[in-house]
Amino acid sequence: MAQTMELSAAKPPLRKMRRTLLGTVPVQSPIYELHPATRLFTLLFLGVVSLFIDLPEINILLIIAIFIYLRWAKVDISGLKIYLPLTVTVAIFMFTVSIAFPGADPNFHSFRFLGITFYLEPLYWTFASYWRLMAMLFGTIQYFSTNRERETLVAVRSLKVPFVITYFLSLALRSAGMFLEDMRTIREAERARGLDETSMSLRDRAKLYAMYMIPLFTLAIRRTDEISNALYARGYTPSGKLENEKQRSDYILTQYQFRRIDTILIAAMVITFVLVGVLRIGFGVFAVTQSPLRIFLLSLF
Amino acid sequence: MTAERLIEVSNLVFEYPDGTPALRGVNLEIFSNEFIALIGQNGSGKTTLAKCLNGLLKPTQGYVKIDDLDTREKGTTKKIVTKVGYVFQNPDHQLFNNTIYKEIAYGPRNLGLDEKQVNERVHEAARVCGVEEVLFNEHPFFLTKGLRQRVAIASILAMRPRTIIVDEPTTGQDLRQSLEVMNFLRDLWQNEGHTIIIITHEMPIVAQYAQRSIVLGQGKVLMDGVTREVFAQPELLAQTFVKPPQITRLAQAFSHVGFSPGTLSVEEMTEQYREICQGKS
Amino acid sequence: MKAVVTKDLGWKYSGRKRFAIEHVDLEIEENTFVSIVGPNEHGKTTLVSCIKGLIPSSFHGVWRGSVEIFGQDVRKLSAQRLAQEIGFVFADPEAQFTSMTVEEELVFGLENIGLPLGEVKERLDWVSQITMIGDLLDKSPYEISGGQKQRVAIASVLAMRPRIIILDEPTSMLDPLGKDFIFEILTNIKKETEMTVIVVEHNIEQIAPLSDVMILMYEGSIAKSGPPEVFFENSDFLIEHGIQPPQATAFIDNVRKLGDYNGPLPISLEASIPVLANILDHRLGGKG
Lengths: 301, 281, 288
Prior knowledge:
The complex is a heterotrimer. Chain A is mainly alpha-helical. Chain A folds into 2 domains: 18-160 and 259-301, no CATH class; 162-255, no CATH class. Chain A has 9 helices and 4 strands; from the N terminus they run E-E-H-H-H-E-E-H-H-H-H-H-H. Chain A has helices spanning 36-48, 56-72, 84-100, 120-146, 149-158, 163-191, 202-233, 260-283, 292-299, and strands at 17-19, 24-26, 110-113, 116-119. In chain A, helix 1 packs antiparallel against helix 4, helix 1 (36-48) packs across helix 5 (149-158) and helix 6 (163-191) packs across helix 7. Chain B has helices at residues 46-53, 77-81, 100-110, 115-129, 145-157, 175-190, 203-209, 227-231, 234-238, 246-253, 266-280; strands at 5-15, 21-31, 35-39, 61-66, 69-70, 84-87, 163-167, 195-199, 212-217, 220-226. In chain B, strand 9 and strand 10 form a beta hairpin. The longest helix of chain B is centred in the middle third of the chain and has 16 residues, at 175-190. The model of chain B has no long low-confidence stretch (mean pLDDT 90). In chain C, the strands form 2 sheets. Chain C has a 6-stranded mixed β-sheet, with helices on both faces. In chain C, strands 2-1-4-5 form a 4-stranded antiparallel β-sheet, covered by helices on one side. In chain C, helix 4 packs parallel to helix 6 (146-158). The chains are: A mainly alpha, B alpha/beta, C alpha/beta. Chains in contact: A-B, A-C, B-C. The interface between A and B is large, with 31 and 45 residues.
C-alpha cells in the first residue's frame, strides 16, 4: 500500500508546488498565464525546429532562451541537474564515434594532437549535431517539466482532436502510472523471494523483465474489466454523442482562457517555423557551412 | 520455553528517497514463537517497518539485525529471506511464474538448492498450505483469490523462514475466508513453530488471534504489549486512531460494574455478565 | 413507488454450470437504505449488477425473469439513461479513477450527459461538500490515498444525481479512517437526499445501523431479509451463513437468551449502552 500521510500532524509544511510530469512548478508561476495549447506548441516548435537549423550558434541561443523561459516560469533549474550525465554521455559517444570514424576525405582540414589525426569538418559537424540534439532535448524537457497530463489533454482537446482519442490518451497515461507502481511492487516481491539483482548477469536480468510480464498482464486484465465496467456505469459512449443528438459538454476546457497573447505566440511560432523551413529547404540558409564559428576556425588553417 | 531473539530493531529511522519520513526511531525485539499484530492507520509506518524487518528497505539510520545479521550489509538478501518471509497484500503482485509448481520452487531455486531439495521443499510447503498436487501445473491466474493467497504463502514457506510477515491477510475477504486464513496462520504458529507477524486493520481479528500487539503512529511505536492489555487502555489507544473491538468498548463502558476493560470476545462478555449478575442474585 | 422490482430473477455466467443467482424476488421502496450482505461468491455482486443493467449488457450468459427500475424494464434502457437513473460505485478505488485530476473525474459523467456548464459547476460544488473533497479538486490520482479516491468515486456518481445509488463493497479496500469517512458520507446521503441506496458490504457493524432493510444472499438466493432489529434475531442462523452480527448486538441477544431481556435488539454500540444499563439496573438494582 502506498505511503500516504493522512494524519495532518505528520505533514511537513508544504510550499505551494504543483507536480508536473517531470518536476514541480510553483502554483503561482506566471506560466499559468499561457493557455495549455500555447505550451503544447512550445513543445512542437522547440522539439522540431532545430531539425532545420544546423548552426550551433542558433541552437545554443535556443537553449539559453529555454533556460530563461524556465527561470521566468519559476521552475527550480537545479532540478535539471539530473540530465547532466545524459548530456555528457551523449557528447562522449558522439565525439568518440566521429574521431574514430571520421570518413576522412583528402579535402578535409586536419591537425594532429596527442598522436591522433583530427579532421576539422566531421568534428565540426558532430559539434553542430550535438547542439541540435541538445536544443531538441531541452525543448522537450521544458514542456514536461512545466506541464501535467491534464494540461496536455486540455491542449489536445482545445485543438479539436476528437474526444474519443483524447480520452484514450488519458486512459493510457493513467495506466502508465499504475503500471510503474505495479512494477515497483513486483520487483520488491522478487527480492522477498531471494532474488539478488546485483549479482546477476545482463542476460539473466533480461529474462527477469520477461518474468514481470506475467503479473503485469494479470493485473492489467483484471483491471481492464473493472475500468470498462466503470465507464459503462458512468454513461460513457466512445463517440461522445448523446442519444438526443446533443454533444457532450466540456467543463474542464472552460477552466482555461485563451487570450490574445496565446494567439500571438502560437502565430509567431507557426510563422517562424514555416519561415525557417522554407529558408532551409529552398535557400539552404542555416546550413552548417554558414556557421560563423566554422568559417572562423577554417580560416586558421 | 525460553524465547530466542530473532529480530532486533534499534533506533530505526527510515526516510523515503523524496525525504518523507516514515519511521522516526523504532526500537523492537521479536522473539521465537510469537503471534504479533502490527496495527495503526495508513501512513503510520506499518508496511515500511515490515519491509525493514526483512531487508526490502534499508534503514536511513539505526539498524535491523536478524540473528545478528545486519540488513544494511550488501549481499545479505539471500540469507535474510531464509529467516524472514514477507507475503504481499495482493497475490497478483507476487505470482510471476506460469505454473504453481514453478512459483513455489522459485524461492528455493534462487537460494541455489539442487532440484531434489527444491522438489522436497515444494511438496512440503504445498502440503502445509493446503495446495493440492493436482494444481501444480495450473496457471496461477485461473485460481480463486483465496487459493492464490495460499500459493503466495507457500512460495514464502518454501524458503523456510522462521518469521513470516503477512500484509493484510483478510482485506477484502468475507468472514469465513478470513477465519480460514487466520486459522491457517495460527496453525503455522502453534504447530510448525513459526513467528507470525500480521499487518491488519481488523481489530476483532487481532483480539482473536494475536498474543502481542504493536501499535504504530506517525512512525513511532506507541504501544507494544500483550493484546488484552493494549486494548484495555482506551485513552492511549484513542490517540492512535485505533478503535478496539466493539465488544471491548461495550465492556469498557461498564467497567464500573465489574466488566474487564480487556474483554476480547462476545463469549467472554457473556461469561462476565453471568458472573456479575449471578454473584448478586 | 417501488424503486426496484425483480421477479424470479436468475443469471448464469456463460461457461459456468450453476446459476449465480436464481429465483430472486425483491422489492425495494423508493428512498430506503438497503444493505446486501453474505459470503463472497454467493451472488451479491451479480444481483446488483443485474439491477444496474451491467448484466446482461457487459457479460455473456443466461438471463431469467425481470428487473424493473421505477416501472421500466432495465434491459430496455440505454447506458446514458441508466447512468442518470442508477449510480454505481465499485470496490476498487484504483480502477475506477479514469481521469487525470479529481475535478475532471467529477465532471466526466456530467459532460457525458451534456449538462449546461452552469449546472456542472453547481453540482461540482455540492458533491465536493457532501463528500468532503473540496481541497482535492486539482490533485492527480497519484497524489491521493485509496480512501480519498473512493470518496472521489462516490462524488462522481452522486454528481449525476441518480435516483438510485448502488455501492459494491465500497470500503473493503480501505483502512479504518477511510472506512469511517465512507460511512459518514453514506449517513449524509441518507439524511440529505431522497436517493434509494443499495450497499453491498462486509462491515456489518457499521452498515447495520444505517440500514432500513438488510438482505442476506446465500447460494444465489435471498436467505433472510428484514429491518436490522429483526434480521439479527437468531444469530446462529446468521453465523452458519457466514455473517457475524455486530458484537454488541450478539451479546444483548445472548442476554435475551438468558431470559433477562425481551425488548428489540439494539444494533449499534451507542444503542446497546442504555439497553445494557437498563438490564443491569434491573438485575442488580432490584435484587442487590
